């Protein structure tokens, strides 16, 4: 029998491969390679039915294995295909230059400026925009930017008219305005941040009717899970409203240039670069005093202070990264296949034809993938079938926990059908809701998959939610639990536990992790929750009753004496 890879795996998100194209949840390919090399012979076949951005396929290419990737989302399969399908880097670079030669004269004037130092020509790299809110006391307009103090969050605002303070979130959004411009001057060889001048303001006032080519006009309202009242306040009623008119003009020009490429593979690669920048080019990229902090993944949130980036600069940087990727990563034709469809129906995969499965399925109610992919899929012109999406939804009828478990059970059953009799499956999962954990365990059991072991996967570069979890102790898991499943009945996931025994297992696991932790991140409740759940599952104990709050309280009691001991203050 194959030995179990039970050790915790750690990998960084901060790699050139990982950063080529964003996705809502991604396991770095460097974290998948150890599993493929352990469970698969060279040339063996791995199946990922919830492939997302295709990192399992990239890992297969890096390790000399083959992969079959499947996902319900058109955006996911677009990203996965371009990540895993060979593309001639020189031909791509030539195609990029042709596109830029056509688009530059139309886009560059949108970001033209004058240098405040030398008076010469400069380029607007980005503009910072601020909400304008109505004072709840006197109804005067208050610009959020004016209430910002460096190093702190914008919470309390003071009205310049009535001098009264109020909480930002208690004030209605009544508009927005540009407050700062960041310029690049080639002659001065530098960047400058300045207050908005009349000439800069003039370039921010384009109209929607100025958009010269096609752009998506998909309605966006309360029927979408991620819709919020704040979208209404900002005038967002369709997908196009997520971009400023200036950036929508630039994106429409680039998209038209992509469509003009006649070679199908090169056109897909250009579209890969295009979709890689549409989120950053939107109003969703929130401003930070020290550096851009990226969009808030898994939401369609728009911050009170945000960037409007130069679309042409974004595209130039992205195509350089993609060209380097195609030059450096050993992709080969036929090594990875990508299909779009439900994980409940993998009819294109023959019975018992797969040696191993590695997958990262949807996390219940944590992320609504169809909503999160809406901006990409609007440009692609193809949308996720939300009726088949494995999520727990508040707004869509018939999408409760029972429905989620049923979809996952049917997906696991398909995974089992495809696996060889002696094959194994690795399932990477994260959630802080004990009922979702119960659902995922029961779904695996109902499908005839049995647990052999559990461990953790820690991504050393945290997501935005992970950072908030560490800093504020929020109820967000920062690490994943890794389940090793088998088609053979070697262990029943429904093993009954005795509470004191389970607490002893969790205490030992937490103490060991806290004592050996090399960083604060590895001592955070966000990581330790995954450690606790994996420890319980690894010895066949039930996770019911093990809430995030219970683990955090137990970890706090363990950490204190251990910290004292490490400082020489205790026995």
How would you describe this protein?
It is a single chain. The chain is an alpha/beta fold and 571 residues long. It is built from 17 helices and 16 strands. The longest helix is centred in the first third of the chain and has 19 residues. The two termini are 44 Å apart. 45% of the residues are buried.
Put simply, the count of helices is: 17
Biggest sheet: strand arrangement: 1-15-16-14-13-2-3-12
Structural class: alpha/beta
Helix content: 25-40%
Topology:
Layout: E1 9-11, H1 29-39, E2 45-48, H2 55-63, E3 66-71, H3 74-84, H4 89-107, E4 112-114, E5 121-134, E6 141-143, E7 156-158, E8 165-167, E9 173-185, E10 190-194, H5 198-202, H6 229-233, H7 245-259, H8 264-278, E11 305-309, H9 311-328, E12 336-340, E13 354-359, H10 369-372, H11 374-380, H12 401-418, E14 419-429, H13 434-446, E15 450-459, H14 464-472, E16 479-486, H15 499-516, H16 525-538, H17 548-566
Parallel strand pairs: 1-15, 2-3, 2-13, 3-12, 13-14
Antiparallel strand pairs: 4-5, 5-6, 5-9, 5-11, 7-8, 9-10, 14-16, 15-16
């Amino acid at each position: 029998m194959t030995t179990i890879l039970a050790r915790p795996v750690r990998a960084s998100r901060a790699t050139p491969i990982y950063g080529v194209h964003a996705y809502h949840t991604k396991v770095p390919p460097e974290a998948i390679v150890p599993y493929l090399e352990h469970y698969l012979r060279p040339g063996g076949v791995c199946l990922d039915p919830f492939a997302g951005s295709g990192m399992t396929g990239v890992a297969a290419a890096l390790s000399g294995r083959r992969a079959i990737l499947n996902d319900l989302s058109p955006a996911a399969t677009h990203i996965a295909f371009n990540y895993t399908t060979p593309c001639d880097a020189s031909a791509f670079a030539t195609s990029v230059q042709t596109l830029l030669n056509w688009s530059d004269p139309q886009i560059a004037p949108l970001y033209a400026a004058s240098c405040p130092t030398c008076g010469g020509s400069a380029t607007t790299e980005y503009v910072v925009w601020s909400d304008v809110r109505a004072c709840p006391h006197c109804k005067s307009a208050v610009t959020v930017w004016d209430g910002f103090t460096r190093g702190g969050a914008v919470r309390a605002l003071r009205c310049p008219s009535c001098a009264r303070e109020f909480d930002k979130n208690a004030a209605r959004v009544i508009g927005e305005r540009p407050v700062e411009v960041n310029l690049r001057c080639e002659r001065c060889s530098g960047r400058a941040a300045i207050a908005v001048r009349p000439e800069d303001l003039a370039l921010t006032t384009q109209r929607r009717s100025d958009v010269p080519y096609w752009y998506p006009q998909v309605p966006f309202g309360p029927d979408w899970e991620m819709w919020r009242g704040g979208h209404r306040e900002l005038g967002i009623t369709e997908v196009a409203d997520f971009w400023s008119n200036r950036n929508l003009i630039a994106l429409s020009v680039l998209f038209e240039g992509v469509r003009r490429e006649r070679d199908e593979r090169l056109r897909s690669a250009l579209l890969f670069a295009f979709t890689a920048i549409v989120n950053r080019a939107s109003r969703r990229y929130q401003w930070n005093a020290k550096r851009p902090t990226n969009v808030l993944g898994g939401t369609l949130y728009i911050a009170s202070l945000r960037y409007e980036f130069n679309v042409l600069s974004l595209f130039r940087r992205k195509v350089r990264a993609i060209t380097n990727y195609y030059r450096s990563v050993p992709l080969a034709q036929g090594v990875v296949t990508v299909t779009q469809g439900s994980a409940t129906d993998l009819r294109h995969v023959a019975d018992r034809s797969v040696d191993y499965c590695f997958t990262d399925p949807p996390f219940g109610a944590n992320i609504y993938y169809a909503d999160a992919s809406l901006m990409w899929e609007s440009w692609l012109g193809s949308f996720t079938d939300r009726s088949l999406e494995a999520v727990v939804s508040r707004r869509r009828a018939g999408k409760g926990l029972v429905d989620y478990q049923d979809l996952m059970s049917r997906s696991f059953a398909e995974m089992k059908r495809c696996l060889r009799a002696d094959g194994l499956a690795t399932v990477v999962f994260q959630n802080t809701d004990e009922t979702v954990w119960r659902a995922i365990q029961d779904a695996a059991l109902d499908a005839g998959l049995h647990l052999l072991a559990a461990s953790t996967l820690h991504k050393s570069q945290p997501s935005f939610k992970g950072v908030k979890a560490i800093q504020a102790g929020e109820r967000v898991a920062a690490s994943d639990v890794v389940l090793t499943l088998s088609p053979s009945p070697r262990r029943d996931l429904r093993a009954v536990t005795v509470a004191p025994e389970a607490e002893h297992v969790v205490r030992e696991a937490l103490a060991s992790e806290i004592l050996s932790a090399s960083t604060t991140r590895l001592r955070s409740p966000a990581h330790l929750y995954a450690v606790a759940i994996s420890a319980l599952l690894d010895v066949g104990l039930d996770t019911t009753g093990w809430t995030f709050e219970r683990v955090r309280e137990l970890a706090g009691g363990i950490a204190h004496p251990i910290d004292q001991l490490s400082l020489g203050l205790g026995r």
